[in-house]
Amino acid sequence: MASLMLINPSRRPSKRRTHRKASPAQLRALAKARRARAGLHSNPAPRKRRHHAMRAAHHVAHRRARRNPIGSTGIMAQLTTAGIGAVGGLATNAVANLLPLPASLQMGWQKEATKMAIAIGLGMVCKKAL
Fold it and tell me: Are 66 and 43 within 8 A, CB to CB?
């Protein structure tokens, strides 16, 4: 009698109980309760009703809407940093071309090592000047 033997047989699926899906209204109510526990509010903030006598006696604090955290200041900081790096690279190349270096320092890996040394030196000089 021929039989088939498997090296890594997979487990047989178990009979699981099917769970009932929540309706969209139930999901919204659950999300609202979760936000309330976390202290988050909808945007724009709902207005609270106050009595006129209380309004005269207490200062009403205004709530601000949450803004997008990624603004133009983050982009400008990145562009400024990139610009400084680009100017530093150009200055390093200009100084390396102006210096009277021997031919052995102008070829191969010595050229890259020389440019690294020039970049570090320019950084130290500019740090004191700026």
Answer: yes
Cα 46 from Cα 42, distance rounded (Å): 7
- Give the integer Cα–Cα distance in Å for 2 and 20: 44
pTM passes above 0.85: no
Write the DSSP string, 109-123. Answer: HHHHHHHHHHHHHHH
pLDDT tens track for 62-89: 677 766 666 667 788 888 889 999 999 9
With b for 16 or more beta-carbon neighbours within 10 A and e for fewer, the 71-84 pattern comes to eeeeeeeeeeeeee
For 69, residues 6+ apart whose C-beta sits below 8 A from its C-beta are none
Q: What pLDDT is recorded for position 12?
A: 75
Give me the pLDDT at residue 58, please: 56
Nearest residue to 91 via CA among 109, 114, 115, 107 = 115
- CA pseudo-torsion sign 30, 36, 37, 39: positive
Q: Determine the pLDDT at residue 117.
A: 94
- Contact (Cβ atoms closer than 8 angstroms) between residue 48 and residue 60: no
Rounded CA-CA distance 122/96 in Å is: 11
